[in-house]
Design goal:
The protein is built from eight helices and two strands, in the order H-H-E-E-H-H-H-H-H-H. It is mainly α. It has a domain at about 60-155. It has a two-stranded antiparallel sheet.
Length: about 180
């Protein structure tokens, strides 16, 4: 029994599921109430980061994005540290770089003309990744990322319930 529990501790599939449970529990308990969303923009590139109500700027989403980055980064870095698959600090730094690149990809994709042509954030993320890796090289925390599939599995486990619940909600509204 001890060997099976010890082997589970080092299995990235189980960690992805546990992180998804943590995120879902945070939503159900009311701790996680809203995820910041980078908005659409046309002329002013800072507009997507502003919170505008009734035509008046009432704040921005930068602090929320920073908290999201730190929270998810800590979860993934703890996972890698417990699995003994790499350094806690290097993983956290690598996650921060990837998070910023993902935000930039979303920001580019939300430009009105780019969105009109259907060029999604995935394309921009791929292009940014290729640009960074072929010009300056991968940052230290991303270079030899141990168990790189672990982060993608964690992302899928967190994304899938959200996607399924959206579909269920839409179908329930239709009747």
């Amino acid at each position: 029994m001890t060997n099976s529990i010890s082997s589970l501790r080092k299995n990235e599939d189980y960690w992805a599921i546990w992180i998804a449970f943590i995120v879902i529990a945070g939503v159900l308990s009311g701790i996680l109430t809203k995820v910041p969303k980078i908005g659409k923009w046309s002329d002013d590139p800072l507009t997507p980061f502003l919170v505008i109500k009734a035509g008046v700027v009432v704040g921005n989403i930068l602090l929320s994005l920073l908290v999201l980055m730190l929270g998810l980064g800590l979860l993934t870095a703890i996972t890698v540290a417990v699995m003994k698959a790499g350094s806690f600090g290097r993983n956290l730094a690598g996650f921060a770089v990837l998070f910023v690149l993902a935000c930039i990809a979303n920001w580019i994709a939300n430009q009105v003309n780019i969105k009109y042509w259907g060029l999604s954030y995935a394309l921009w993320a791929l292009l940014l990744g290729l640009l960074v890796s072929n010009t300056s090289g991968a940052p230290g925390g991303c270079r030899r990322r141990p168990r790189a599939s672990c982060s993608s599995k964690q992302a899928w486990c967190c994304w899938a319930p959200r996607s399924c619940s959206k579909r269920l909600w839409r179908s329930a509204r239709r009747g």
